[in-house]
DNA sequence: AAATATTTTAATCATTTGATTAAAATATTT
DNA sequence: AAATATTTTAATCAAATGATTAAAATATTT
């Protein structure tokens, strides 16, 4: 009995998605919605419309499958900011605009992503350490640019503020909708507005005495 | 057999904490650290140094015990901002200073609180709806004050930005420490700095054309 | 002190859950 | 087409988990 563990060469010519892929996609949806601990492997099998044993046949264990999903999602979450952080051909102002705009666009499509990522990392910080992004912020060109404009303030203050203003609304979305009386349509409209508001504010902050 | 469910009158004169209270405190620590789904009732009993059956004797079920802990923690989390939101005797600028300062102080003592609250609410939004804070933001004096200064911008934009800049660093703490090279001591120092930075930035944002 | 009520414990239940197995079904190679 | 390899399934296992029970221990009242 050969165990594929998601790496066997597929000689399949089927048009439809492979069972392995169906499981990975189902796992992504269920893990993202419920988190690792609250997810049952049976939930994933059911979501994929396949037998439970296939999950272990292709991925060995719940934990290994989760690791694969988690790595994909971390790439998506940090992929928005990483290339821009190290870009040396773009002005600081333009970078800020792009970071905010790219994040809002991506998060409108994946509103559960930040809370999922940040919560799972908190419960297992190895997940993040195993990820490449060891020196994501520290030593980036973005940080250098910030330090030039405001040598007196730690550049991370600005990074945290920009990301906070951009990402936090999605983290707090359920509360905003209940306590703030914001429906889905208004939420989307406000996030679109923030694409121009947040960069404007951020630039002003960086120029401040 | 009488079932107390945390409401029996205590005729006890013992100096030490009651078993019921020990369990509630242990539950708070374990639930906050691991979240509802990952918490085993046995973890709580062990943390409290008491027999597992006592948990069900005093609180009927894991879910009921969690509900009690959750309500306490939501009061703490939203209690920082609620009174200030409705205060009509304080200037907008002063309110902003106090919101940020009070939150930073509280979160330095309870760094896991935001992620715990926001994540559990996401997985069971009834938890928040059952909570009183139905109209926490909408209709508050704080919102009125914001609307006066900037009629063109939805006041929630400012609320979200101020809370984002204040709370987000705690939500992203594990990532900041790994990717930003921030140790605990520097983190605390930076949060202290933000007590003056964030209000200064927020005021500038609100005054902007 | 005896009787009664309350608190705590050890043992046990019934389900749930991640994982395995052996066989059946399907595809691929010879 | 036969032989072989791969994929899928139903049945099952062992461990974990929330909860209960009956009895023991302790406190309170009479």
Task: State the gist of this model.
With 209 residues, chain A is mainly α. Helices cover 72% and strands 0% of the residues of chain A.
Description of the structure:
Two copies of one chain form a homodimer. The first copy, chain A, has 209 residues and is an all-alpha fold. Chain A has two domains: 50 residues, Orthogonal Bundle (Arc Repressor Mutant, subunit A), CATH 1.10.10; 128 residues. Helices cover 72% and strands 0% of the residues of chain A. In chain A, helix 1 crosses helix 7 and helix 10 packs antiparallel against helix 12. Chain A is globular and about 60 Å long. The interface between A and B is large, with 55 and 55 residues. The first copy, chain A, binds a DNA duplex (30 and 30 nucleotides) through helix 3.
- Indicate the low-confidence ranges of chain A by residue numbers: 5-15
How far apart, in Å, are the first and last alpha carbons of chain A? 69 Å
Radius of gyration of chain A: 20 Å
Q: Strand-and-helix sequence of chain A, N→C?
A: HHHHHHHHHHHH
SS-derived structural category of chain A:
mainly alpha
DSSP summary, beta strand count of chain A: 0
Strand content of chain A is under 5%
Can you give the mean pLDDT of chain A?
Answer: 90
Q: Describe the oligomeric state of these chains in a short phrase.
A: homodimer
How many individual domains of chain A? Answer: 2
Tell me, what's the shape of chain A?
Answer: globular
Largest interface chains and counts: A-B, 55 and 55 residues
Report helical residue fraction of chain A: over 70%
Continuous helix count of chain A:
12
Which sheet architecture does the biggest sheet of chain A show?
none
């Amino acid at each position: 009995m050969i165990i594929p563990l998601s790496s066997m060469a597929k000689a399949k010519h089927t048009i439809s998605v492979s069972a392995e892929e169906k499981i990975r996609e189902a796992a992504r949806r269920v893990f993202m919605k419920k988190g690792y601990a609250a997810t049952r492997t049976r939930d994933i099998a059911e979501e994929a419309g396949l037998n439970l044993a296939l999950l272990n046949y292709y991925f060995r264990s719940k934990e290994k499958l989760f690791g694969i999903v988690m790595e994909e999602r971390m790439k998506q979450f940090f992929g928005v900011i990483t290339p821009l952080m190290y870009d040396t051909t773009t002005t600081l102002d333009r970078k800020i605009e792009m970071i905010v705009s790219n994040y809002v666009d991506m998060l409108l499509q994946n509103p559960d992503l930040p809370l999922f990522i940040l919560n799972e990392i908190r419960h297992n910080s190895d997940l993040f350490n195993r990820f490449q992004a060891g020196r994501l912020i520290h030593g980036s060109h973005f940080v250098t640019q910030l330090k030039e404009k405001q040598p007196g303030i730690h550049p991370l203050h600005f990074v945290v503020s920009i990301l906070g203003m951009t990402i936090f609304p999605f983290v707090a979305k359920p509360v905003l909708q209940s306590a703030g009386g914001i429906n889905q349509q208004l939420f989307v409209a406000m996030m679109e507005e923030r694409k121009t508001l947040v960069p404007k504010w951020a630039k002003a902050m960086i120029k401040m005495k």
